[in-house]
Design brief:
- The chain is mainly beta.
- The protein is 11% helix and 46% strand.
- Strands 17, 18, 19, 22, 23, 24, 25, 26, 28 and 29 form a ten-stranded antiparallel sheet that branches.
Length: 574
């Protein structure tokens, strides 16, 4: 292999390194003695808060620098030991996902190693090892700030550079598709459409499924893949202490007021009863070694929404058209005038339309409270329910400072009435979403030697987006005029979007240099389907049939004449 090939492979490896940069952080710093001289070959350890066993270790370089890579987001104590010096301990070191934690210079004091000096200076708030612009929303904010719908996406718009405009959230004015969104390194975007990635995620995350989120808005690390901006969610992990919670909230319409238009039409207040309950538990199976976290949340929304539709008056249903001529109402039987009768197919369709006794408002149609003409409004309440289940299970196994393993499984189910996908008089919608999304990720971090770290990570996200139409399908559809269509023309459609990711990333520290290399690949398989268009649709209209003229209806306006011909088309089935 010639030099050009070697350089090409190296560039490829550097360009495709990916997943670990989004899930884990890195800790950098330097160690000197009291005179400011570098302390080489010192033992540097990261210890989980509340533990005594090192989780990750490395050694300082001849220049006294140290770097610990692919560190899971958590709070650690940093311990530094060197022969002839007192042990130094930096407590409360917060490591954020996808970011560098730069520790101020640590000065060791001469003395016995059994003595410990606690360094109270916290980590610097300014990244000094790279030019990346990023922020992390931590556990305290996610856990304590009030969020009405318990979705962590609401936190993103609190960050600088993130703005909601023109129907979608963007970062620094870029297209929404330029953002890469992950959970534990796994891409969870709607990879079929991907036009509003920061407003809709098929996994529909809730607060207890997220420990932290890091947003990189500019100069993202070169190992970050899939977008110029990065949103990296990290799931919670267990610890040596057991922590848990349980909650339940209820919202209902018992004390709610009705809307003005419902009161006007005599429509009852829509029913509402929402229950949201769940809990989480995290802790250890083996202290300092094996940790777990699990949570479950149920969302049960039972409600009605109000709809206003257009129906025919009794006269119009029988072919009698009412119009205004010279300030007085005129009635003409247009079927008799045109020597026509009601088409049998249209009679069957009109049989599904509520009769005139259901008219309760005049916000739609051409009637008024003083004159019942041809069409009017029927306002009613229909079911609009939603059922969600969110489940998370995560395990972390710190086998040794050289080998750690982690795995996450999520199952988020969403059953949703889609009233917006139909315009009928059904009290129970015939179209629903049924989207059980499953995500699995796993990682193995190994440190064969103090200067070399390798992480293998894989993941999959199985995300169906299915609109199920349960109504009977006729031989053909008819798109009527004047009235709300009583037959739902929406057909079953959707997609199964499966995303798979695997990577192997290595980091090698040599003197003052850190070299990262590896590979990452993402495969997205989409199976889309759509039954729309299979059933023929006929739109009513005059076509080549004879039309009513103004001579037949003396004094009629152009608007009323058009309405009269629409009624003729509706009844005669033109």
């Amino acid at each position: 292999m010639n030099l050009r090939s070697v350089l090409g492979v190296a560039v490829l490896f550097l360009a495709t390194s990916g997943l670990n940069a989004q899930v884990t952080g890195r800790v950098t710093g330097s160690v000197v003695d009291s005179t400011g001289a570098a302390v080489p070959d010192a033992d540097v350890s990261l210890i989980l808060a509340g533990s005594a066993t090192p989780a990750f270790t490395t050694k300082t370089t001849p220049q006294g620098d140290f770097t610990i890579l692919t560190v899971p987001a958590n709070t650690y104590d940093l311990a530094i030991e060197a022969k002839g010096f007192k042990k130094a301990l930096v407590g409360g070191l917060k490591v954020d996902p996808g970011r560098a934690t730069d520790v101020p210079v640590v000065r060791l004091e001469v003395g016995a190693m059994v003595q410990t000096v606690e360094v109270s200076e916290a980590t610097t708030s300014v990244q000094t090892s790279n030019a990346e612009v990023s922020t992390t929303i931590g556990k305290t904010q996610i856990g304590n700030l009030p969020v009405l719908n318990r979705s962590p996406l609401g936190f993103l718009q609190t960050q600088a550079g993130i703005n909601y405009s023109y129907g979608s959230t963007t970062i620094n004015g870029q297209r929404p598709t330029y953002v890469n969104v992950t959970v534990d390194g796994m891409n969870i975007q709607d990879n079929f459409i991907r036009t509003n990635d920061m407003d809709y995620l098929p996994n529909l995350l809730l607060l207890d499924q997220v420990a932290e989120v890091t947003v990189s808005t500019s100069n993202a690390n070169s190992s970050s893949y899939g977008g110029s901006s990065q949103v990296a969610f990290v799931t919670p992990s267990g610890s040596n202490e057991f922590h848990g919670n349980a909650y339940w909230s209820n919202r209902n319409n018992y004390f709610a007021a009705n809307t003005w238009f419902n009161n006007q039409s005599g429509t009852k207040i829509p029913f509402l009863n929402q229950n949201q309950l769940g809990g989480s538990l995290g802790g250890h199976v083996i202290k300092d070694k094996l940790f777990f976290y699990t949570n479950y949340e149920a969302f049960r929304l039972r409600q009605q929404s109000t709809y206003n539709t257009t129906i025919l008056t009794s006269d119009a249903r029988n072919g009698i058209f009412t119009y205004n001529a010279g300030g007085s109402a005129q009635k003409v039987n247009i079927l008799q005038l045109m020597n026509k009768s009601i088409d049998p197919t249209m009679a069957g369709i009109l049989g599904k339309v509520p009769d005139a006794s259901h008219i309760n408002n005049f916000n739609l149609g051409d009637s008024s409270s003083t004159l019942l003409r041809n069409t009017a409004g029927y306002r009613y309440n229909a079911r609009n329910n939603r059922t969600r289940d969110n489940f998370t299970a995560k395990g972390d196994y710190l086998l040794s400072p050289r080998n750690t393993f982690t795995g996450t499984f999520m199952w988020n189910r969403d059953l949703l009435d889609r009233n917006d996908a139909q315009t009928t008089f059904d009290l129970v919608p015939t179209v629903q979403n049924n989207n059980p999304v499953k995500m699995l990720t796993g990682a193995w971090r190994s440190t064969p030697k103090a200067t070399l770290t390798n992480e293998v990570r894989f993941g999959m996200n199985i995300a169906p987006g299915i609109f199920v139409a349960s109504q009977d399908v006729p031989k053909f559809y008819v798109a009527p005029t004047l009235i709300t269509n009583p037959v739902n023309m929406f057909r079953t459609q959707g997609r199964n979007t499966n995303t798979y990711v695997i990577s192997d990333n290595a980091s090698w520290v040599h003197d003052r240099h850190t070299v990262q290399f590896g590979f990452q690949t993402q495969r997205t398989r989409i199976e889309s389907f759509n039954d729309a268009g299979i059933t023929p649709t006929y739109t009513l209209g005059l076509g080549g049939n004879p039309a009513l003229t103004s001579a037949m209806l003396p004094g009629i306006s152009a608007t009323d004449l058009s309405a009269a011909n629409n009624l003729l088309s509706l009844l005669a089935g033109y």
